[in-house]
Every structure is written in structure tokens, then in C-alpha cells.
Task: inverse folding
């Protein structure tokens, strides 16, 4: 189960669904660390995200960088 919209991503990792909120000014990068846009992402892409995990909500992450390893 994956979902992509302008403000968040829902990613399934193992048996857990993580909600990754896209902070204002988030950077979207390709595998070579070139800038890209969220509109190029599709369900099934392999992503790495960098940001902070919420202590009170362990399955929620506030991302500052999202890197798409398929681009």
C-alpha cells in the first residue's frame, strides 16, 4: 500500500505503514542527488527519506529530503 500526494507519502515498510509528511521546502532528489520533482514519483519507486521521526507517533516522519532511487 503506497500513496503519494502533495503533502505526504504513505509507505509500507515490512508490515508497517509509515506516513511521511513533506515539510515546507522539502528537497526531492534522484539517485545521483540531482534535483527532481514529486510529480516524477510513481507508486513502487524505491525511496530514501531523511528527516525526523515523531516521538509520540513512531510511524510518522517529517521529511526534509526525499530521494528516489529509481530516477
Result:
Amino acid at each position: 500500500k503506497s500513496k503519494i500526494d502533495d503533502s505526504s507519502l504513505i509507505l509500507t515498510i515490512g508490515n508497517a505503514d509509515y506516513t511521511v509528511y513533506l515539510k515546507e521546502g522539502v528537497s526531492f532528489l534522484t539517485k545521483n542527488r540531482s534535483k527532481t520533482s514529486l510529480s516524477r514519483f510513481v507508486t513502487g519507486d524505491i525511496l530514501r527519506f531523511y528527516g525526523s521521526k515523531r516521538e509520540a507517533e513512531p510511524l510518522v516522519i517529517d521529511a526534509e529530503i526525499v530521494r528516489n532511487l529509481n530516477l
Remarks:
- The mean pLDDT is 88.
